[in-house]
Design goal:
- This protein is α+β, with helices and mostly antiparallel strands.
- The strands form eight sheets. Strands 2-3-4-9-10-14 form a six-stranded mixed beta sheet, with helices on both faces. Strands 6, 7, 13, 25, 28 and 33 form a six-stranded antiparallel beta sheet that branches. The protein has a six-stranded mixed beta sheet with strand order 22-23-24-29-30-34, with helices on both faces.
- Helix 7 (164-184) links the parallel strand 3 and strand 4.
- It is elongated, with a radius of gyration of 36 Å.
- The two termini are 71 Å apart.
Length: 801
């Protein structure tokens, strides 16, 4: 028996091993075929297009120059997109990328083919010209002669090719030599030159070296440039201001400064550098002094003032880099400018740069450099609205695609709840955006892409989209009841056909089209957080059309009888909720026999909250009807329901974005992930008389955003119970942006959750007492959710007794 068990076990292990090997081999279906591995031409073009679009999107958000310049960056992409199809080689693609980047006039933002081992570049740097100062061998000797005096009285300090040890050790000696030169009062002492050049680049900093002497070289406090970069707290909306809830800004580091020290040297001073010099911040600060100059031996490196850089791996082994910051001086000008750049000469010609530096120190010329000035602050992101472009050309349609991808990639806080690969969505919709043949089809493709966000706050609006979906409805409202579109409200005004319809009638057809099929078609274009929200949004608008048009409905009444009714669509049928309020009784009332109060939060306004509580002061319970959208009354109501001074109602988190997601280059690789600014929101208990009775709130899929926020406040105040069905599941201040076609896109800009961190988005407020309307109840004129709330409160009153 034991032997059989062992054999059975071995058989299972063998089968498992065979299956594992087979699955492993299936991962490599084309191992023997090089041809299958190669990408098709269209796949290569798509990869290049996507990389170009993503690079463009990141530059638009993070390149420091675009925060304050008037560069038409959109045009750069639009001009480049058609050329992607013409590119044949990787070198041509790199040239195309650089042509797009050239509009920035920034030598630090560029693309290049990755260098291979058999490639080399001719680079006329300090290595090809005369070697400077001490050689490396000499610089390692302890006996370096630090200072010499020229015949013209210029003190030349030899700091060339310093070793790391010397950069630490020579600080005291340098300070001593400088002060001795000053103290000796050499008759013709006329200037100072600090020769800081290097033959090759090494990460050796000289900040400590100048810490003790910088103050002797200035007569006033001098300030170095400050590093600034772009950052975002949420996405500042391009339509409708939000009081700074979301904003874009420059993040500016505190600048290094030098305080004057006694004694002041008081002679012209020149710092001689080259492209390999790591210039101390004190030197940049001292340059603002009238008699302090920086002379460069040859062109300077792009990395003279260090900033973080974003590195992008593009198709074909191409690497693109972009600076994520810029250095701004106290007077507002951006970037370093040397006082003089000396053209390098060959070794036989002698050290021309040192001669020029000595001449500068001796003759002390006036400051002649010119610098471009920019505003200290940037401007809020405001892309063109393109309202005069209802049907954009293909390059502009693809620009719209990349902008949608970019904004949601960086600023949609619920990206982690999408449940989809947003990069794959981008790839899937490239051919869809390219193929859109008119404004309507383009608008629908945009709407369909947005459904992948799964956020009920997301929507796209334009003339073409509104024309398709319609903006005016007939004199009836529908909801999905028991899975069917049912008439739940009939306009109070008289209209043709009113006597032929009734509450609870099921909509079977709309203009001879099956109602279910029509709803399914609408589902394709409606972003929704939850299934109940999708149904609610679709049924709310599936009868809409243009003003003064007719919609023909096929209905089924309570007896199963089919009928056809034609109704006019007119905006005058429906008024705003506020316009239906003529007295306090329309907002709140007592429920017979007067033991309970009912308040319609869709109608209640802040100035009537006190009246409402006064009317209900002797009741045992209040029913707050939140099956719709409120008027900002949440704090006033919640403050009267709690006995606490402060109450935690929830948490909100805004995305904080200061650099692209991915890998940035500093002295090390830095992988960037999404960050959030999280804070708690409280409300204060009211100083007015508190209401201590039981409270419930009626909810369903029509409660969204501020309505759900109201639920959080009331739940926190006194554990208000929710009666009904789950809400939409979309809460947080909305932001908006535009894309070509004049399309305005909205989305939830922050995370809102329960005080304990429990998720609200894509779930909604959940009922404590679940109940949904029925078709029979609607036909009978009942409000079954309200009835359940009354039943619950009265049962609670009896239980309490």
């Amino acid at each position: 028996m034991e032997f059989l068990l062992i054999m059975a076990g071995l058989r299972i292990l063998l089968i498992t091993f065979i299956i594992t090997c087979a699955l492993w081999l299936l991962q490599f279906p084309s191992m023997g075929s090089t041809k299958d591995k190669a990408l098709s031409k269209s796949q290569v073009q798509t990869a290049r297009l996507v990389a170009l679009g993503k690079l463009w999107a990141d530059v638009s958000l993070f390149h420091p120059l675009l925060g304050h310049s008037n560069i038409d960056w959109d045009t750069a992409l639009v001009a480049s997109i058609p050329k992607v199809e013409e590119v044949e080689t990787d070198a041509q693609y790199a040239e195309l990328v650089n042509n797009m980047l050239d509009i920035l006039h920034d030598t630090e933002t560029k693309a290049s083919l990755a260098m291979t081992s058999n490639q080399s570049e001719t680079n006329y740097s300090a290595r090809e010209v005369s070697r400077v100062g001490n050689s490396k061998k000499e610089s390692n000797q302890i006996g370096r002669k630090l200072c010499r005096l020229t015949r013209d009285g210029v003190a030349v300090f030899d700091l060339t090719n310093l070793t790391r040890e010397e950069s630490w050790r020579l600080g005291t000696e340098l300070h001593k030599e400088l002060l001795q030169t000053k103290k000796q009062k050499v008759k013709n002492f006329s200037g100072i030159v600090f020769d800081m050049r290097r033959d090759s680049y090494e990460l050796i900093k000289m900040d400590d070296l100048f810490e003790g002497i910088a103050g002797h070289l200035c007569k006033r406090k001098v300030v170095a440039p400050a590093l600034r970069s772009r950052m975002y707290c949420g996405y500042a909306p391009e339509a409708k201001r939000n009081g700074g809830h979301y904003f874009s800004a420059y993040s500016v580091h505190d600048a290094f400064s030098v305080q004057p020290m006694s004694p002041t040297i008081g002679v012209p001073t020149v710092f001689l550098i080259n492209s390999n010099t790591i210039v101390p911040m004190a030197v940049f600060a001292l340059q603002s002094e009238p008699n302090v100059f920086i002379v460069s031996d040859g062109p300077l490196s792009d990395y003279l003032l260090p900033v973080d850089r974003m590195s992008y791996s593009l198709p074909g082994g191409i690497v693109a880099e972009m600076p994520l910051g810029e250095w701004v001086y106290p007077d507002g000008h951006v970037g370093f400018v040397a006082d003089k750049i000396v053209k390098p000469r060959r070794r036989a010609a002698g050290d021309n740069a040192l001669k020029e530096a000595i001449l500068f120190a001796k003759s002390a010329p006036g400051k002649t450099r010119t610098k471009s000035s920019y505003a200290i602050s940037g401007t809020e992101t405001a892309f063109p609205k393109y309202q005069d472009m209802p049907y954009p050309s293909k390059p502009y349609r693809l620009l719209a695609l990349f902008r949608i991808w970019s904004v949601f990639n960086y600023f949609f806080p619920y990206k982690y709840l999408m449940g989809e690969d947003w990069d794959q969505v981008l790839l899937d919709f490239i051919p869809r955006f390219e193929a859109a043949k008119d404004a309507k089809e383009y608008g629908l493709v945009v709407s369909e892409m947005l459904t992948h966000t799964h956020d009920s706050h997301v929507g796209a609006g334009s003339e073409a989209i509104w024309e398709y979906f319609g903006s005016v409805g007939p004199p009836v409202h529908c909801r999905i009841i028991e899975g069917k579109p049912v008439i739940t409200e009939i306009c109070e005004h008289s209209f043709a056909g009113k006597t032929e319809i009734g509450l609870g009638d099921i909509v079977k057809t709309v203009n001879q089209v099956d109602a279910g099929a029509l709803l399914s078609e609408r589902y394709k274009y409606i972003p929704a957080s939850t299934p109940q929200s999708l149904e609610g949004k679709a049924v709310e608008e599936f009868l809409q059309g243009e003003e003064d048009t007719t919609v023909t409905l096929g209905l089924e009444d309570g007896q199963g009888k089919l009928k056809t009714v034609s109704l006019r669509r007119q905006s005058s049928y429906w008024h705003t909720v506020e316009s239906t309020v003529t007295s306090d009784g329309d907002m709140f009332k007592l429920i017979e026999p007067g033991d309970l109060g009912y308040c319609d939060l869709r109608k209640l306004t802040c100035n009537k909250v006190a009246n409402m509580f006064e009317k209900f002061k002797n009741t045992k319970g209040i029913i707050f009807d939140m099956r719709g959208y409120p008027n900002g009354t949440l704090e006033e109501i919640a403050g009267r329901l709690t006995l606490k001074e402060y109450v935690l109602a929830g948490k909100h988190s805004k995305p904080v974005v200061s650099r692209p997601f991915g890998t940035t280059k500093r002295n090390f690789l830095d992988e960037v992930e999404p960050m959030f600014e999280t804070s708690l929101f409280f409300f204060m208990g009211s100083s007015s008389t508190k209401y201590t009775g039981k409270t419930v709130m009626l909810i369903d899929d029509r409660a969204i955003s501020q309505a759900e926020q109201t639920g959080l406040f009331l739940k926190a105040a006194n554990d208000t119970r929710f009666v009904g069905s789950a809400t939409t599941g979309a809460n947080g201040t909305v932001s908006r942006f535009y894309i070509p076609g004049g399309i305005c896109i909205s989305f939830t800009g922050e995370i809102i959750c329960h005080p304990d961190g429990t998720q609200l988005q894509r779930r909604g407020l959940q009922p404590d007492i679940p109940v949904k309307p029925t078709i029979a109840g609607i036909r009978a004129g009942k409000d079954e959710v309200l009835e359940k709330a009354i039943e619950y409160l009265r049962a609670e009153t009896v239980r309490k007794k």
